[in-house]
Amino acid sequence: MELKKSPEADLEKKRGLFLQIGLVVSLAVVFVAFEWKTYDQQDFSLGQLKVEDIPEEIIPITKQEEKPPPPPPPPTQEIVIVEDDKVIENEAEIQDTEVTQETVVEVQPVKEEVIDEPEIFLIVEEMPGFPGGEAQLVKFLSENIKYPAIARENGITGTVFVTFVVGPDGTVKDVKVLRGIGGGCDEEAKRVVMAMPKWKAGKQRGKPVSVQYNLPIRFTLK
Fold first, then answer.
1. Whole-angstrom distance, CA of residue 142 vs CA of residue 131
2. In a domain, 30, yes or no
3. In the predicted model, what is the mean pLDDT of the chain?
4. What's the structural domain count of the chain?
5. Closest CA to 163 of 150, 149, 152, 177
6. What's the 3-state SS for the chain?
7. 141 lies in which domain range?
8. CA distances (Å), 210 to each of 44, 119, 173, in order?
9. Rg of the chain on CA atoms, in Å
10. Is 114 inside a domain boundary?
11. For site-directed labelling of 123, which of 48, 51, 155, 219 has its Cα 20 to 30 A away?
12. Is residue 10 one of the residues assigned to a domain?
């Protein structure tokens, strides 16, 4: 009797599949073998803490020596006790320093010297004026003012405002420049004002008083 194989049990048909599976497994084993890493095992030790027995330092107790107090100084003068019924020879006369009578001290008041400074007015009933009026004032300024060379060379022009005080006697004092233009014009304006003659004093309630006066002086080049 002849044996017949089942076509499903024939392994020759699946030979290629088995070959592919074997190749895949072989490649996987080789890849794992190459990637596999091993490490040397090392034992780590944190060491051992050694505590040395340090003997405790004993601080000796010291006692400060107490010095005896110094002896009292010897008396500079010997004190002699004498009975009441004995008289001391060469006894110095003792003067009574107590005041038996009431002492009267006269205090004279100190007189403070007060310097009366005249009050300076800004506006009064009768303002001060130049002798002869404003026309004479303009004439005086034009004849006495000398144009500074520096201002002339640099073409400096403008108005210098000068303030001064006309005293009760008409004297011009405390001359100051309120606003200047430079170039020597300020100094020239101040010089001319200080050279002015006495003004007619201003009056308040009919009494001459000190009045502050402002004067503009214009510098122009022709």
1. 16
2. no
3. 76
4. 1
5. 177
6. CCCCCCHHHCHHHHHHHHHHHHHHHHHHHHHHHHHCCCCCCCCCCCCCCCCCCCCCCCCCCCCCCCCCCCCCCCCCCCCCCCCCCCCCCCCCCCCCCCCCCCCCCCCCCCCCCCCCCCCEECCCCECCECCCCHHHHHHHHHHHCCCCHHHHHCCCCEEEEEEEEECCCCCEEEEEEEECCCCCHHHHHHHHHHCCCCCECEEECCEEEEEEEEEEEEECCC
7. 120-219
8. 109, 7, 10
9. 63
10. no
11. 219
12. no
Tell me how far apart the alpha carbons of residues 199 and 60 are, in angstroms, rounded to a whole number. 102
Of 201, 221, 199, nearest to 210 by C-alpha is: 201
Distance CA 18, CA 12 (A): 10
**β-bridge mates for residue 177, sequence order:** 162
Instruction: List the structure tokens of 172.
Output: 């011009």
CB atoms within 10 A of CB 218: 13
Q: What would the two tokens of residue 108 be?
A: 């004279």
Q: Write down the pTM of the prediction.
A: 0.47
Rounded Cα distance between 30 and 18, Å, is: 18
115-128 confidence digits (pLDDT tens): 556 788 999 999 99
Query: Which residue matches tokens 């309120």?
Result: 178
67 part of a folded domain: no
Structure confidence by residue, pLDDT tens digits, 152-161: 999 999 999 9
CATH of the domain at 140: 3.30.2420
Q: Which residues contact 211 (CB under 8 A, 6 or more apart)?
A: 120, 121, 122, 124, 127, 128, 165, 166, 201, 202
